[in-house]
Amino acid sequence: MNFQSPDLTSCDREPIHIPGSIQPHGVMLVCNAASGRIAHVAGDVEGKLGITEWADAQLADLLGADVAASIMNPGELLPRSIRPPHAADAFDVSVARQEGELLIELEPAGPTQELSTLLPRLEAAVQAFDSARDLTALARAAAQEFRRLTGYDRVMVYRFLDDAAGRVIAEASGPGADSFLNHHFPASDIPVQARALYVQNLVRVIPQVDYVPAPLRPARPLENPLDMSDCVLRSVSPIHLQYLRNMGVAASASFSIVIDGALWGLIACHNFSPLQIPLDVRSGCRALAVSLARQIKARNNTDTYRERVRLRTFEDRIVEILSREGAIDVALSKHLREVQKMLDADGVAVIRGGAVVREGACPGEEDVRILADWVVRKDGDPIFATHELEARSLLSPEAVPLSAGLLAMKLSSEPWIVMWFRAEILEEINWAGNPHKAANLDSDGNLRPRASFEAWSETIRGKARRWSLPEIEAAERLSVAIRSVWQTRQIRDLNKELVALLEQKDTLLKQREFLLGEVNHRVQNSLALVASFLSLQSRETEEPSTRAALEEARRRISAVSLVHRRLYGANSIRTVEGARYLDELLEDLLAASGEEWKQQITRDFDPVLLPNDRAISLGLIVTELFINAQKYAYGGAAGPLHVAMKESGSRVIVSVGDHGAGRGTTRTGFGSRMLDVLVSQLAGTLNYSDNQPGTLATLTAPIDPMGTGA
């Protein structure tokens, strides 16, 4: 005897979509989609259709021209209850189309259901669905209505769980039928490829479990099997047939509950004697299964919406508290009860750096730190959620039952983590048979399904209530909101510091400007005093040349003094309004030159802001050019003199022009040497040209001290 444990994955590899045979209560015709010629048949074609020469025959020869035309044209509705030309009985027709072939299935036609009879029954079923107050009541109504429509001895609503196992959540059965209500079935009972076919084909009917498969004739080559995924008559896996026999089932039907492309569950129907349900009833049940799926989805969406609204209210409340109160980690720790209640947790803990704050039923501080370190080391999203903690081996025995469910929100790598806990829930699961003996091997090594479906109980430990998708999404949003509040708080604090620094800087600048203003005032007073001394000395001196030299010195000092006077009286201590400065400078020069010169001066000044140090140099240059014009242009007499200032890009252009005798030989006196020094300081140029008649002196210099010379 072979005691080796069976490999249940072989069930998942069984090619149930290409069995190469059909259930024998009907027949299958495989014809070319273009020519309509028969290539293969399955079932008793000779007996049921009354024709023996079917190979390479036209479809019309077997089913009649009108029926064949409807089948060949994809846009036409298939006729009901057809009677082929050589057949004694009527058949219902269904067609599957694939890769240039038509798979035509004929089943014995049952009694036609009048719409006046079937529609009220379907409407009553839909009304029963609408009246159900919750999912349990809805599933119970579905089991009852499907049994009423089909007449099966037992109808179960079977829901798939997250681990692909299933549970019977509702049941309707006749007298003497065993009950599987609330029983679990292992995932191996419905293999992966079978679940995929349930999504593709919503209806699966086995009128009689004990049948001999009718093979495809002639057989298809192994490298090109016929895919019967969409076929009603597709033969059933021998393992599944034995499974049904072991349950005492003689006939079965399944109607898939598919939500958003995923198999949510099945309406599983069992009968203890062979039973064929008519096509009309089958079609009605298919539509009812689709309606049931919509009902379940709508209720799930409603429950999810309500849960999201509840969670959003908590989120807004917590964020409002964190935004209003002081330090975020302190505020979070002060309101842990609300944070715990938000996700319906048994306990919550906040870890930041070395500090741990807990609320509710939580592991001890050391275990919380161990979990925090474990969560930080896990890569991935800032949110981690599990209802079956894999790290329980790291914890103390006391902490394990308190932390079966963990939802962790990582806020930073300090670590700064919020952890919600859900305690372990001991779950007593009733299985329909021992799930650990779901299959066995016979003496030949072939896999056989389990034979016992007697109730078998198992206690599940180490699991907590699952965290719902809305709860996980709420934790993600809360994580983003806390980071946002934290960053906003940091930005606000930095702005406060910046404002304080700017205010301090403004105060220092005002103090500096005040001090510089005082310095300018004192310098201006000192220069004015020196100019007064020079003026007094000039009046007391009888020597004309000495008097002239003293007067020139006074004018130069007055030009410098005027800049400091303008700086002291202006809003800015760094710049001087050039036009006003030159205007006042000329007025000061003319005051010492006599009334005859005042009538001869013309001015043309653009508004130009000049740095104060450059204004001093510019004023001294204009003063020197004015003195030269007075001395040499008209032989010491008064004459026309034009002074102008223009701004050209980043440069200032100042000109002093007369219409006198013109510039003679190049001068090398003190005034000329001083002009050269001042022009060099300005990084400018001083050019003399013929003013026709007279001399035009033009100074060009950068306004910006960093500018380059010409």
Q: Could you tell me the radius of gyration in angstroms?
A: 52 Å
Alpha-carbon distance between the two ends:
111 Å
Task: Tell me the fraction of residues in β-strands, as a range.
Answer: 15-25%
Number of domains: 5
Overall helicity? 40-55%
Could you report the average pLDDT, rounded to the nearest whole number?
84
**CATH fold descriptor of the largest domain:** Beta-Lactamase
What is the spatial order of strands in the main beta sheet? Answer: 9-11-12-6-7-8-18-21
- Low-confidence parts: 1-9
What is the count of DSSP helices, taking H or I runs of 4+ residues? 18
Q: What structural class do the secondary elements suggest?
A: alpha+beta
Largest sheet: 8 strands, mixed
The CATH homologous superfamily of the largest domain is named GAF domain
> What's the architecture of the largest domain in CATH terms?
2-Layer Sandwich
- What top-tier CATH class of the largest domain fits best? Alpha Beta
Provide the fold topology:
Elements: H1 9-13, E1 21-22, E2 27-32, E3 38-42, H2 45-49, H3 59-63, H4 65-72, E4 91-98, E5 101-108, H5 115-131, H6 135-150, E6 154-160, E7 166-173, E8 183-185, H7 192-200, E9 203-206, E10 214-217, H8 238-246, E11 251-259, E12 262-271, H9 279-324, H10 328-334, H11 336-342, E13 347-352, E14 355-360, H12 365-377, E15 383-386, E16 405-412, E17 416-422, E18 427-432, E19 439-441, E20 447-449, E21 455-460, H13 469-540, H14 544-569, E22 575-577, H15 578-591, H16 595-598, E23 601-605, E24 609-611, H17 612-632, E25 641-648, E26 651-658, H18 670-681, E27 685-690, E28 695-702
Parallel strand pairs: 8-18, 23-25
Antiparallel strand pairs: 1-10, 2-3, 2-5, 3-10, 4-5, 6-7, 6-12, 7-8, 9-11, 11-12, 13-14, 13-17, 15-16, 16-17, 18-21, 19-20, 22-24, 25-26, 26-28, 27-28
Helix pairs in contact: 5-6, 5-9, 6-9, 9-11, 9-13, 13-14, 14-15, 14-17, 15-17, 17-18
